[in-house]
Structure formats: structure tokens, C-alpha cells
Amino acid sequence: MKNIAVFTSGGDAPGMNACIRAVVRAGIYYGLNVYGIVRGYAGMISGDIRKLESHSVSNIIQRGGTILKSARCEEFKTKEGRAKAYEQIRKHEIDGLVAIGGNGTFTGAQIFYEEYGIPTVGAPGTIDNDLYGTDYTIGFDTAVNTALDAIDKIRDTADSHDRVFFIEVMGRDSGYIALRSGIGGGAELVMIPERPNSIERVIETLRSGKFNSKTSSIVIVAEGEQIGNANSVAHQVRQELSELDIRVTTLGHIQRGGSPTALDRIIASRMGVAAVEGLLEGKKNVMAGIINNEIIYTPFIDTITKKKPLLQDLLRMLPILRI
Amino acid sequence: MKNIAVFTSGGDAPGMNACIRAVVRAGIYYGLNVYGIVRGYAGMISGDIRKLESHSVSNIIQRGGTILKSARCEEFKTKEGRAKAYEQIRKHEIDGLVAIGGNGTFTGAQIFYEEYGIPTVGAPGTIDNDLYGTDYTIGFDTAVNTALDAIDKIRDTADSHDRVFFIEVMGRDSGYIALRSGIGGGAELVMIPERPNSIERVIETLRSGKFNSKTSSIVIVAEGEQIGNANSVAHQVRQELSELDIRVTTLGHIQRGGSPTALDRIIASRMGVAAVEGLLEGKKNVMAGIINNEIIYTPFIDTITKKKPLLQDLLRMLPILRI
Amino acid sequence: MKNIAVFTSGGDAPGMNACIRAVVRAGIYYGLNVYGIVRGYAGMISGDIRKLESHSVSNIIQRGGTILKSARCEEFKTKEGRAKAYEQIRKHEIDGLVAIGGNGTFTGAQIFYEEYGIPTVGAPGTIDNDLYGTDYTIGFDTAVNTALDAIDKIRDTADSHDRVFFIEVMGRDSGYIALRSGIGGGAELVMIPERPNSIERVIETLRSGKFNSKTSSIVIVAEGEQIGNANSVAHQVRQELSELDIRVTTLGHIQRGGSPTALDRIIASRMGVAAVEGLLEGKKNVMAGIINNEIIYTPFIDTITKKKPLLQDLLRMLPILRI
Amino acid sequence: MKNIAVFTSGGDAPGMNACIRAVVRAGIYYGLNVYGIVRGYAGMISGDIRKLESHSVSNIIQRGGTILKSARCEEFKTKEGRAKAYEQIRKHEIDGLVAIGGNGTFTGAQIFYEEYGIPTVGAPGTIDNDLYGTDYTIGFDTAVNTALDAIDKIRDTADSHDRVFFIEVMGRDSGYIALRSGIGGGAELVMIPERPNSIERVIETLRSGKFNSKTSSIVIVAEGEQIGNANSVAHQVRQELSELDIRVTTLGHIQRGGSPTALDRIIASRMGVAAVEGLLEGKKNVMAGIINNEIIYTPFIDTITKKKPLLQDLLRMLPILRI
């Protein structure tokens, strides 16, 4: 192996730059040339590929977003698109790829390998933490801390006005951000897609909090919550508990940005180094994750098809901590 | 004057606690007893009034929200409500009031003085900065910095995905937060209620930015913008510029909370001291504001009826800085 | 078991309040009365013990420091001191203790059990992360992120002036904070007590960085570094590399304070709940730690005598990432 | 005027990048070519000068430090050095300069004008706020907020352990940072170079705080304090008040870095635009400052020779607020 390329794909996540830096430096450390592909598969098709040196990734470890940019690419889902991409890969004599992204990204990489034999090792870059094969995904800890910081601010005003706040956090299919920011934020309730909720239970909990003379409450609602988003849940609760002063806030895209936390920079760096080392050892179609503090390579097929379990220990704490 | 009371009223704002602390300590410094009234006029009516000592306000200068809480109070708008409030004020032998809030608060205080002769000096506590008689209101600088921090985070993701973001900030009748966070955040456009906008101008600006090969853009929309909120403006722009990837984020209540900035703590402290000194000098129905770094007492009637001008110097910079 | 008490002891750490909250609420959840002992063993001796209710710990999860305060206590090391402490414990009919602190705290608790039969379950509260029996101690993640934030700020000015900065972080016997903040901060070198360093190696690394046209560099030095503190190391390097513009910053006590990160709030909450549940199950002289995401109770004797290994994976990344 | 150049000189300050951006964009807006000189006068002499476009300054408004770097330059103090510099200026056909820095920078610019007729308009870039001719210098508000954030963190631990902390902040000849961060941080005492202090007064104040049963205290010491730095003052106090648990922290270079606050970005932008407009109006040897919210051009000779007064209103609040 002589030349490798790195790219980011799917939704951006804080820590992607730390991972890019680690890939570039590990590549150089092991004697490889490292290329950066701009805008993921789109740049692979259009040939937006540039050589990266050690100094190209200086002073980026602390930056949110991704210097290589990210984009959706429908064209890569077609045979023609992938043929063009291979053309560019061949032109730059690239022998291996590091893909920083999620399951959509890994699916593309797997097909690309089957067709053209270019091996890819992945690194899990998504704030949602919903990838099987790793305890933490890159960006998750930062997103949780950003949500928490917002919850802390909202608690100030909730408390000053004796209000109930419904706060919607990211996580379309996954309650990870909701659960951790909810526990960390001292929320009364956390509503997540993985666990059936009923409006009745929500109402009951808020009513008993009121009864216990709590003057303010926070309810965290994950984007993908099945009985509705934060606005809709709040609306339903208002019908029953008109004595509560209820407000809604949707945190939105602030959760995607910002300087990564220490944890995100560290796991991103470890995964970046491990991805390069994996390629050098001949690995392909695997994701470099961290389980119990150790690097584990999990086949793409597992990250794509298997469901990561929620931490039961957090779930069971909710009724204890809100007492 | 022997006994004074302090209360917060209207929307809470970061720095209110620093102001309460300054009122309490200045009162004690000048030999007064200082009472705190909980939940503004509502607590005045219900008699939720407690004596505050120096240590009651220890370690609160850095906290968001208000330890005295705030609430709307319809009852104080009635003659009967104010009679009950006066009963409580008389019972505690309170000779003067410090009201931290906005124009609604000051209106109530003025009527209360006319009916019962209890003098009030106000301090401007509102994140919107829309009070005549002061360069800065308590909480404004913090709200702007909170909005800015969110804009910085969103720029990370906007830039990574080449997107246009419409970000809605607080300010129902006022573009102060929008203007300062927009200039500070490097926004292409800032849409504020004080200045007529047209969708055409917005579209034109974004189109020419695209033409100048800007890959991402930020548009700040104040809550009270006349041609619609951020969602509605974004919707209209999407019709015309379908090639842009447009997203919307509404920052919401995070702008009300958080630890106050240095500037907010300092002006809140100055205004709190000045409010007590104003009462001692026999002032009434005035707000202690800061203009050109000096304490100025402005009659409530002026803060209520006069309109504060926007800083033209900021407005005129927008087309220069987005070039 | 009917009555338990919780206290914090040793150096304070962010997240201690989240742990206190969890102990109080878990205690109440399981039908116990929960007392708080102020200033650790000192308050146990003097009888500064108060009943805590659910609302006593409202709105503290986000606060640094410890609402129960902490203090050194020489008297508890004497038989007479412990006799007085037992007097107070008996007076309040306390059946079990939760001690949040480090090895000094646990040693005292073990002796107290041997003499008076009062069981203690510990929770690891120290920013240094040097306790055997847990992957993370309470406060460690916050301290690392605080150090990292400072390193990021210093990198701005280092880069603007092409300087080399030696930054001293906390960790008298332990390089955990140094290693994680160094990796996260993109440091060239990390000097820790666990691994022998030589001035020659430091000079060599900085010289080769200069050679590779790096214009600025960061060196992290742990407090307990054997060849000297940051000032002394910098002094020695200056003798050899007079062409470098070298500065020194000692981060100091800022690393102990601040609002805890999500991770610290979550592990502190889990450990607090686990400590109460441990007591109820009859456990004693053990610390509730988290290893591989699961609660593990480790005997005090092991936390005190065994040495926690450094994560080799981080150490070996340093030469790769600085290339 | 057709070509202008901008540079940063002296100690770096957060907001310098926002000012550079404003200079570049205002220059382009008014039809000029704008050059950036790297490392201040050193780059002027060596010819490290590059053309800047609008996109060269994209996405830098939020960054600390200066993308143009800064350096001391002894050579420019010599006639020969300035002759070389002029050679480069002539070669690039530069007609005017914008210098972002302090009095050292402005002195150089004035001499350069007298010798070669190249006009300079300055912008006040220094965290110390000690420049006559402007209410705020670029970087000052950020430095104060950074110091304040550190003080807040230290207060957590001071309070948990009932300690007295002496915190040294920047300001060699100026107490501005000390005074504002001290008021904002709720300090008992602020020691600044502009006002004579005595150890006796410090001891007296701390003793009476102890008497008033304050359990923890913060004393802010400006770098340039005449009776000694924080360590030395603390040492003297310890002799007299051995019952206090006294600690010292020196904040150091973290005060120079970090993302600029809203205020710093806004004044930096205004001053940058004003500097370019000043050049276009034929101004020279003046600094574009902001006094009472308006742009004022002050002759270099005044910024250099006149002393800016401290805000008396802040000084007189200290004994009131610590009661």
C-alpha cells in the first residue's frame, strides 16, 4: 500500500477534523501518501482530490465541521457514478480509503469494494451514537454537551418563571443524545424512540411533580419520538394540565457544530490511527470502533444490520433521580 | 428612608442576580434594611416578602435567572390588586422600591406611586435592549453572546455542507440582538423589524453571494421581522432559489439563560447601586440607566413613550462586510 | 438500614454535587432518611449534620464544587477524633455512609468501620483519575476539558507569535490529565510522572519540530513530572535552544472548578445511586466505580494499594500525531 | 489611493482577525487592492506581503490570534530597517497602511510617515485597554470574560474549601482587566497599579471579611501591582493571617486567546472599516477608536502621551459590593 485517501460523508460531526488529522499523520508516519477527497463520494466522482501534508492538518484538531466538507451524493448509488469514482481513484493510484461517516457511507464503500476491490476502513462519524460496533461515535459527546449547555440555560429561565419546558434534541432513530443530556440536565422525563411512551404517563409524571411542589420541570424529547415531536407532545399535555406554564424549544443544528470535547478529539484520533493501521494490515469493509476502551474492527455488515442496545443503567435511573 | 424592597418582573434576564446583589449590598452599606419580593407584583400582593442579608446574595453574581423569580401579574393591573400590595408594603414598613424589569414593570410602579406614594427607582432588565434611557439593558450582552455562540456552531455545519441557514433570534419589536449577533457572526443579511425588508432584496443578496462563489451563508431574522418569521422567509426564498440547500434554526429560550457576561454583571452592579442611591436622594419614577458610561436617571414616562434609535453605524456596515 | 449520611472529602471535584444529588434521591427512593455531613470528617466530629430532602438537591447537578464542602481533618486520624465522630453518628442513628472522595477518605472510612462497624460505600471523587477500580473518577473529564480549553486559547497566541509553550497541568502522581489534554490539544510532547523523560529527548523533539518548520509548539507537563515542573523544564530547554521563543503557563486551580461535563454528571449520578444500592445490599469498605460501562464495587484495600495503568494506546499515539 | 496594506503588531489580541476582515472587505468595497503584511514590521522589511481577497478572510471573524501573525521587530527601530521596509512598500505600490496594535506600533508608523510619507491609520489592538482615545481596545472584553470565567471556576473550589484566593490577571501598567474582572467576579479586593495599596489595607479587609463570617474570598491582583505580584502579596498576608487557607493562581496567557466576544468582534469591525475610510479621507497618524459609541480619530501623539483615566464609578463600588 502506497497511497490512501480520506473523506467525510453524511452529516458532519465535531471531531471529524481530529480524525482527518490522525489519518493524515498516521499515514505519513507509516510512509504513505495521503490524499483528501472533498465532499465525500461527490468529490470522488468529480475528482476533487488533493494531497495532504502534515501541515495541511495543523491547527484543525479543535475545529468543528470538516475541512474536507461533506455532501449527499445520489450519483454514487448508480453503477455509472461508481465507475467515474473508480476512474479518479485509479488516476491518483489510491490503494485504500478511510471513510469517516455512518451506515450510508459504509454501504457505499462495501459496494465499491465488491465492484473495484478498493478496500475501505471506516471511522464512525455521527453525533447520534447509533452505530453498532463502538461505545462512542465521533461527535456524540460534543453534541450531548452542547445540548446540556442549552438545557442548563433553559433551566435558569424555567426556574425563574416556574415553567415546564419541552426540549427537543437530535436523534431521529436513537435516544442516545436525549438520554444522556436528560440525565445530565436533571430532566424529569426523557422521551425516546426506543421505548414506548404514552401521553398519559407524561401527564401523570408532571402532575405528580406539581403535587410534590416542584415549580419547574424539563422534559427531553428525541426528534424521533413516536407519539410526536416536542411541539405536539406539549400541545397534548397542555389540554390536560392547563395550570402549567408550558414552553417548547427545539435545539436544532447547534448540536452539530462547535469545538469538539476532549473525549471526541481523543476517540477520533485513536480511530483515525486505527483506520490507517487496519488498512496496512489488510483489513477491509470494517469500522474501527472503540469498545471498552479498546479498538475493535467490526464488519460493515454488522454495523449496518445490528442494533446497538441502549444503556439500561441510564434508563432505570430516571425515576430514581426525579423523585 | 429605612426599609427598601427589590423585585424582578417581566421576562428574566442574565445579570438580574448581579443587580439584586448590588441593591442588597448598597442598601446595607447605606444603613437600610433590604427586603426581597418574590415573583414581582404577584409576591407583593400575596406578601411573599423576605428580609435579605449580605450573605443572602453571596455567590449569585454568576448565575442566570433571578433568585427572586419573576411572574406576570394581572391582578396588579386592578385597583384591588394594588390595594392588597400596598397593604403588604405598609405591613413591612417599606419606604422605597427597586424594580428590575421593563416598561410593563415601570408602568405598574408609576401608577402605584400615584396611588400610594411609594417611590420606585427602576433598573432596565430585559435581554431585548429596547429601553430608551440606557445604552445597554441588563442581559442584552449575554443574550447576544449566546446567540453568537450558536451562530458559530451553525456556521461549522453550514460550511461543511455548503448550506444557507436562516437563524431566528429573539426581539419581538427590536432588532438589537439580531443586529449585533449578525455583525458578530459574519451574517450576510440581518432582517429586523425596524427596517423594511423585501423578499426580493433577500433573494437578490443570496443570489449574488452564490454568484461570488460563497458556499455558505447565514441570514439572521429577528422574531418580530415584518415579512415573516425565519421559517416563512426561508420558505419564500426556497421557491426562487431552489438550487440552495436552505435550513432554518430558531434559537429560542436559550437566549434568556446562562451565566451573565462581564459587561452584564458590571452594568447590573452599577445600576443596582445607582438605584439605591437614587432612592436615597429622593428620586422616584425614574430608571437608572447608563449612557456613555455614566449613570443617567430617565423618567419612566420617557422610557415608556420614547423609542431608542438603532445604531446606524452597525446597519451601514452590513453591505460592506458581506462583500 | 434506615438512615444514611453522605459527605465529600479531600480535594473538591466537578460532579460531586451531581453525586450528592443522586445519593439523596436514591436514598429517598428506597425509603431511607438521608443526612448531609458538612466538611467531611471535620463535620462528622463537630456534628455539622443536616437532613437533606429531595428539594435540597434541586438545581445543583450543574454546579461545580460541593454544597457539602470539603476539608482536611487531622483529628479524624486520631482515636479520640473518631470516637467523637461516632458519637455524632450514633446520635443521628446513622446506619451507613456514602463517602465521595479519594484514597485518604477511604482509608479513614475503613478504620472507622473496623472500630465502630459503620459501613461505608465510596464514590471516586477526584480530578486526577488515579484511582484503581474505575475507568473514570468524578471530575476528571471536566478537568481535562478545562485544561483543553486553556490549551486551545494558548495555541491561538502561540501560533500568532511562533512560540513554544510549556503548560503545566494538574496531576501530582498521575499523568492522566496531561495525557488526555495533551492528545486532545495537539501537543508535541506530554511529560508525565509515570514515564521517564529526559531533557535530551525534549530538546531533540523540539529541535526536529523546528526543523520540520513547525512555527509553534505546545508541551504539556504534569505537576508531578520528575525532571521538574514546567518552569524548570523550560529553563533547561532555553539553555540549549535559545532560538526558540519559550513561554510557560501553569493552569492551576481553574482545573478544579466549573460546571461538570455530561460525562461527569452521568457517572457521578450512576455512582451515587450505586453507592446507596450497595449499602442496602450490605456492602461495606468498597468503592462504586465504573469499568467498561458497568458498575463494579472494588474493595478499598485494592483502590488504595493497586496502581491503575495508563492507557498505552494514548501514549503510543504521541509520536504518530506530532509528525 | 489604490493599494493599502494591513498588519498586526505587538501582543496579539482576540478580535484582530475580525478587524483584518473588516479592513480587507472595506478596502474591496471602496475599490482598493488590499495586501496583508505577515508578522508586522518584520514582514514589511522582509517583504512577506500577500494580496488578500474577500474569501481570504472568510470564516475568521470567530478566531482568536491573528492570521497575519505578529512579531517584535528591533530592526524597524533603525533607519536601515525602515529603508528596507519602504523598499517593499514601494515595490507593492502601497499608498496607505492600517496598523492594528498598540503604542509601540503607532510610534513606528509615525516615524515611517515622517521619513517616507506613507500614511497610517491605526486600530487599537491590545487586551490591556490602556490606550487613550478609545473606550475599548480590541481584545479587552474577551480578556475580561476569560479572566471572569477562570474566577468563577476558582470560586467553586474556594467556596468548597473555605479558602482565600489571590488571582493574578494581566495588565502590566493598567488595572482595567483587574478592575472589571474583579467587579464581575465578586472579588473582595482588586489591587491595581494606578492606585496605591498597602499590605495593611489588604490584611484589614480580609480580617474584617473573616469577622463577618465570609468563608471564602477572592483578591484580584494586576500584574503590575506595585507592592508585588500575587505570590508576593499572598506571602506577606500569610505572615499576618495564618488562620486563613490562602492559595495563589496566575492566569497567564489564556487571557490572550480564545474566540472573541460579540463586543470585540463588533468594535474590531467598526474600527477596521473606519481605518480604511480614514485613509480614503486623507487621514494619517491617527487611531480609529470608539468613544461613547462613536468613531473618533485620535492623533498617535495623544494615544502615546496621554493617560486614560480609570472608571472611577467602578473603583468606588468595591467597598459597597463587598459588604
Automatic annotation (TrEMBL), chains A, B, C, D:
Protein role: Catalyzes the phosphorylation of D-fructose 6-phosphate to fructose 1,6-bisphosphate by ATP, the first committing step of glycolysis.
Source organism (scientific name): Thermoflexibacter ruber
Entry keyword annotation includes Cytoplasm: yes
Regulation: Allosterically activated by ADP and other diphosphonucleosides, and allosterically inhibited by phosphoenolpyruvate.
Species classification: Bacteria, Pseudomonadati, Bacteroidota, Cytophagia, Cytophagales
Subcellular location: Cytoplasm
Record key words, sorted: Allosteric enzyme, ATP-binding, Cytoplasm, Glycolysis, Kinase, Magnesium, Metal-binding, Nucleotide-binding, Transferase
Record-listed Mg(2+) binding positions: 103
Residues the entry annotates as binding ATP: 11, 72-73, 102-105
Matches recorded under Pfam families: PFK
Catalysed reactions listed for this entry: beta-D-fructose 6-phosphate + ATP = beta-D-fructose 1,6-bisphosphate + ADP + H(+)
Binding site for ADP: 21-25, 155, 186-188, 214-216
Enzyme kind, highest EC tier: transferase
Entry protein name: ATP-dependent 6-phosphofructokinase
One GO CC term, this protein: 6-phosphofructokinase complex
Record pathway: Carbohydrate degradation; glycolysis; D-glyceraldehyde 3-phosphate and glycerone phosphate from D-glucose: step 3/4
Residues the entry annotates as binding substrate: 126-128, 163, 170-172, 223, 247, 253-256
Active site, per annotation: 128
Phosphofructokinase domain location: 3-278
Cofactor requirement: Mg(2+)
Highest taxon, organism lineage: Bacteria
Tagged with keyword Membrane: no
Family: Belongs to the phosphofructokinase type A (PFKA) family. ATP-dependent PFK group I subfamily. Prokaryotic clade 'B1' sub-subfamily.
GO BP term, pick one: fructose 1,6-bisphosphate metabolic process
GO function terms (MF aspect): 6-phosphofructokinase activity; AMP binding; ATP binding; fructose-6-phosphate binding; identical protein binding; metal ion binding; monosaccharide binding
Enzyme nomenclature, EC number: 2.7.1.11
UniProt-listed PROSITE patterns: PHOSPHOFRUCTOKINASE
